[in-house]
Structure formats: C-alpha cells, structure tokens
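Progress note, project year one: complex with adenosine-5'-diphosphate.
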Amino acid sequence: MANHTSTAEIIARVRLQLSDQSPRTLYGVTPQLEQLEKLMRRTVANLESNSALLIGPRGSGKSAAVNACIAAITADFGSDAFAVVRLNGLIHTDDRLALRDIASQLKVQRALETGNLSSFAAALAFILETLRNGSRQSQPLIVILDEFDQFAHHAKQTLLYNLFDLVQSAEAPMIVLGLSCRLDVIELLEKRVKSRFSHRQIHFLHNFGFDEYLSIARNSLLIAGAEHDAAISAWNAQVAEAMNDRSLVAALQVQFDLSKDPRVISTVLVCILNSALTASATGRLQASSVVSIIQAQFVDAKALVLQGLSTLELCLMIAINHVQVKVGVLEPFNFEMVYEEYKAFANSNVHVIDFFSKPVSLKAFEHLQAIELIKPVHPNAFHVPKEYRMMRMMVEPAQIVDAVTRFQDCSTAVRRWGSQWAE
Ligand SMILES: Nc1ncnc2c1ncn2[C@@H]1O[C@H](COP(=O)(O)OP(=O)(O)O)[C@@H](O)[C@H]1O
Ligand SMILES: [Mg+2]
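Model obtained:
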C-alpha cells in the first residue's frame, strides 16, 4: 500500500538534506577522497601515524570529504575501531581550551582534573596514556583541526608542536588533519613544528562543471524512497520539472559563473523552501520563484548606476558602445569620437530626440568619469585637452544594452539605437 508523506515532512527532509551535515555526492574530488581515505585507513587498520593538510576555499568540500571518509571507515570497521577529536580554530582560541575539549571529547576529563600535570605536553601525554590504559587499548585517533591556520597563532604553537611530535614519534596511532583556506598556511608554522609535519597537502578547488553544479542542486532536492510514496514521487517530479526550466538553468548559470561554491545553492534552496511553506500549504516548487530568489542574491551595482543616468548620459554610453564596435571592444576612445557618434545619431533622428550641444555633452561626459563608468587611460595627462583624453569603459557592453531596455522614459529611437549593438 502506498504511504502518503505530508508536505511539511517532505520539506523537513529536504531541509535536512540541505544542511552541511548530511552526506551527499561530491563531484570533482575523487583523487582527493581516495588519498584521504587511504591515509585514514592506514591509521585505523595498520595503526600508522600520519598528518596532512586539506587546503581549499570555503565550501570546496574539505569538511564534506573528511566526513565521507569517516563514514566509509565506520562502515568497514565500526565506530568503536577509532576515536575522533574535532577542534576548530575559531572556537578553541587557545591551547588550554583545546586540551580541555580533547579530554572531554575522549571522555577522560575526570582523569585530567585529578592528574597533577605541570606542562601541556605532559597533559596531552596523560590523556593518551589514559586512553591506552582504559578499555580501548591503543585506539587509533583521528584529530581534525578545522580553521587550522588559527592554531598557528597560539603561543609557541604548543598544541600543533605536541600533536605533530606525537605523530612523528609514532607513539600512539593517530592522524592529524588540518583544514584551511589559506594557501600559505605552511609558512605560518614555526620551524620545529614544520619539521615535524609530513608536508602532505591535499588541495580542493571546486573542480566541477556546470552539469555537475546542476546535479548538486538536483541531488539536494530529490528525496529517496519515492517508490512507495505518492507524495514523495510527486515532489520529485516537481523537482525534475523545475530543474529543466530554461530560465532556472540560465539563472543558475549566472550564479555558477560568479561562484562555484555549492553553499550558495543551499542558501537559495532554503529560501525557496521557506517561501513554499508560507505561500501555500501545497508546497509547490516553481521555477519562476527560484529564478527571482537567485537574482535577489546579488545586485549588480553598475547596473543600478546605469539606471540612474540622465537621457543624455545614457545616449553617450550608447555612443561609446557603437564607437567600441568600430575601434574594437576594450580599445580606448575619447570625447570627440563619442560626440561624433552621438551627433550622427541625433542628425538622423532630428524630430524625435533632444540634441544637446557640445559643451553640455562634455559636462555629461565628465560626470560619467566622476561616477567611474569610464576612466582615463592616463590619469595624469592633464596637458591633453579634455576632449582628447583617452578613456576606457568600466562596464560591459551587454550591461549598457540591458540598462537601455530597463530605462524608463526612453524614446523609441534611443531604445532602438541602444539595443542595435546586441544584433
Ligand atoms: N565537490 C562538491 N560536490 C558536491 N557538493 C559539494 C562539493 N564541495 C562542497 N560541496 C557542498 O558544499 C557544502 C560546503 O562544503 P564543506 O565541505 O563544508 O566546505 P569546506 O569545509 O571546504 O568549507 C557542503 O554541503 C558540501 O556537501
Ligand atoms: Mg569546513
């Protein structure tokens, strides 16, 4: 018999899938995952000691990769085969705090309080000793140091020194994994710390294409178990339909070109789920609402400036576009060239547009420079008359065409002239 999951339940499940904690298919990181898993297996299965740094921008899958490897190892060896300690440089701002949390995560804090320990190294050794003498004989340890670079700012880098020293002396089986978005993170290490580090680095770089980006979005919305549930299969059908919508794909393409960070999609999708919940009880997923939320994610500042121009200034920007087609896009131009273009347009549309004289146009041209839509090639060439100073455009030709189509109170002739460029 078919079950029927409620809309609220479906949305709750998708929300859970969108959280960073839930496992998901990772794209473009297969070699990184293999290398990391092999290293971790060597610690858990062969009781070796290792260290490695995972380096890459935020949202590039470092934490997700570590979690995926821990899940794979747990599946093979069981969760009792090893212990995990997670520290974060933004939370554990000094080594005492870190040590206390290591003890509490390993459930030996009571022993630490009773032990009379003089130094940091002695305390860390004591924690490991307690682990070994307890029921868990030589249990391999996975130490994850998120925001690794922050630990390098601690006095004398005591924690890092002691951890890497333990790894190097191979007294206890453990792997120390540092996660950081700083490429130069190794340079932050003191000499004695650096010399104990394995210098193994694994890089993460958003190494996937647009198709995979779409799959990430699709995967986080689709719910498993549709075979036995009419409501879930209806939801999945909506997802498939929305993800095939051309305007949605186009909006995601813009987003992808700006940043490949998959966290942006999650943000967008969470917004959509929220509005799906409040707008109607049916929780319909509509491509058009997705598109407007994606577009609201970023504001094109230059486009806003373009929309605030006067008609004359807009005409000059259009003229610049036409000049650039003649002399070559990205080539510099000067006021004389732009004015000639504007005059030619005005002459062929005498009755439909207001034509402005050269001095007025020059003032408008200078205003375009003041608001940085155009910039002089040589900022200090004051000996050259204003009309002849070479300029460069600071916006894309397409942004001007776009501004023309949105511009209010723009005559048909100007509109036609402004969008001709696109043809
Ligand atoms: N290559 C990838 N493929 C699919 N999802 C990814 C990928 N990289 C990151 N993500 C997703 O982006 C989110 C942020 O990733 P995370 O591992 O927390 O980044 P980091 O730790 O590098 O800052 C997670 O939900 C993760 O699943
Ligand atoms: Mg992370």
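The chain has a mean pLDDT of 87.
The domain at 303-420 is CATH 1.10.10.10 (Arc Repressor Mutant, subunit A).
No further modelling is planned for this target in the current period.
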